[in-house]
What does this fold into?
Amino acid sequence: MIKAEHISMEFKITHDRINSLKEYLVTRLRGKLEYEEFWALKDVSFEVQKGEVIGIIGRNGAGKSTLLKVISGILKPSKGEIMVSGNIVPMLELGAGFDSDLSGRENIFLNGSILGYSERYLRDKYNEIVQFSELKEFIDVPIRNYSSGMLMRLAFSIATVIEPEILIVDEILSVGDEAFQRKSRARMLELMGGGTTVLFVSHSIEQIKEMCDRVIWLDYGQVKMIGDSKEICEHYQNYMS
Amino acid sequence: MKQKKKVTIAQGCALVIVIYSILAVCFYFIGGEQLKYTPSQEYKATEKSTTTIGEIRRNMTVMQTFIAQTDEVQRVSLLFATGGKQNPGVALIRILNMANGKVLAQKNVVLSSLANNAYTSIGFDQPVKVNKGETLGLTLNVPNSEEGKTISVWFDAGNTFQGGGAWFLNGVKQQGTLCIIYSGRDKILFGDYYWDLVIGLGILLAIYCINLVVKQKKGKRSFGLNLIATFLKYRFLLHQLVSRDFKTKYKRSVLGVFWSFLNPLLSMTVQYVVFSTLFKSNISNFAVYLLTGIVFFNFFSEATGMGLGSIVGNASLITKVYIPKYIFPVSRVLSSVINLLISIIPLIIVMMITRTPITPALLLLPFSIVCIIAFCIGMSFLLSSAMVFFRDMQFLWNVVSMLWVYATPIFYPESILPQKYIFIFKLNPLYHFIRFARTIILNGVSPEPKAYLFCLIAGFLPLVIGAIVFKRTQNKFILNL
Ligand SMILES: Nc1ncnc2c1ncn2[C@@H]1O[C@H](COP(=O)(O)OP(=O)(O)OP(=O)(O)O)[C@@H](O)[C@H]1O
Ligand SMILES: [Mg+2]
It folds into this structure.
């Protein structure tokens, strides 16, 4: 389903970012375009089977989000190869492409199309999305008038209405009020039960233990450990404390 | 709910071929004469004039011979002298083939309609078919002239008609040349080979279609199939992005879409007032001339201005979801297309007010629109990728597009540059699109075949270059956003 082979991701960090033509010319003329190489991922390899739920843990800046971006095709790895079969819905951040001037209804179609849903699918599922989000009559109000919780509800409802083959989730399960959190957790479990492959980043070890089959532990861009979730989580907790 | 039937590749191809055939036939009729002939230059016997030949009497025959330089002769001009009087009667003007003396064309002109000491142009009812290089004769008689109430023509004793020719009075050869000008049109190969070309291209198209269908059946990949597949896959996204741009643009403005309508009209009015005294005399129908230029240029500046920021402006999306990045510049340009289409309405209204004839040639307008769209998409590819690396691109572009207005004949006539510097205009892609549209709108005829070629090149070459640059740099975008 997903196969990563020796993936490395390099970022070039310039100390003074060159953003203008003048700066570029000046540095070019001086002959030194100084930057530091920074490897956000180093030689990461793993395989994920269909239907598995994989947790990814690690400290801040370990490279978790970067790995998810590589898998969803947003970043091209500097080295190595990634093979993915099946359609991916990336939930790196909810509500990508929401436009604050448009109504909730219009945003459902906009955001849905960005996530790659077809028009027919969205029309069929429209009611389901509105119902799940519990926005009711607010759906025709421009979303700049929504509270941040309402916004997240709408985004979560759009992202999970589909039953994708691969779902990529980056720390988004703390959405909305308590009732909605329970509901969204249930929805995630439902998706996982339905055979969707899930890659899942969270800092809540409890959540990871509860939901995941296997865990990848990233540290400074490298795979520190990979294996059964309970086992790795214990190691991780010992390491961190 | 709307249910769209699935169209297979084979059906799609068949549709394309049918549309192609229909367009080819329609184009033949709309393009008409312009596809077969190109207007010739004016051939002038002499720049000077010394004296008139004296009154032309009843039994006098004035003749000027010249070597035909065109395939057809349509007009001749003579420098008449009428003495400022209203002369009665008519003049008979004929074109002869000197080899066999045959009369190729003749025309009666009322004497009172002739200008005094200025060239009067006389058009024949039918273009006169001649052979290039043969000697023709232009004869002038005034069959019922009355003494003191007739005309004369000027001649130049010091020069002869370039390429050969002389003038005769009652068959006797005289010194110098009469002051005449003739013009006509030349046949172009394109017209002769139009159907061969259409059939040839049709066959190529059919072969390519068959190739696509076969490849699809065998499950092979090909560039064309990929293109169709991505288009189908991202059509809905494109539609959503365009409608977002459009909706948000006017969402909180009072007049809304009406601005797209008013904007070109207002700038036309201002520029009309400012420039009409300067250039009006050189341009017939200055209002329409101006508005056509404004509508096209506004589209260009809006589309490239929006396209410029399309990648940087959508940074939050690009770093979070995988979408082919070319969607952004393309969608921005397409949203400006909607504005362009809306602003064509005021153009047509002004055409009607100024009584510019509305002809079938207007159906050719989409051609120049498609070409300018291709050009703008290409420019947006270039600009948006440059913008990712150099944020000051937007300031630079503001300046460049401001200068571009002045470099393009929008509010001034092309004739502002001497003929030999016209190539400066020709290097400017916008010039070709605007000139193409103006020929259609102002003259009501199709431009010459070369203009189509220029438009295609000016539109699609930048598109290809832009696409290549964009493709090469797009993987680095995300590291700079
Ligand atoms: N576009 C970029 N340019 C330069 N460096 C980057 C870029 N994106 C990420 N990085 C660096 O890569 C490293 C890994 O970042 P990443 O976002 O993957 O961490 P993370 O594991 O998701 O952290 P967190 O738990 O805080 O979400 C960080 O040190 C970050 O500074
Ligand atoms: Mg992260």
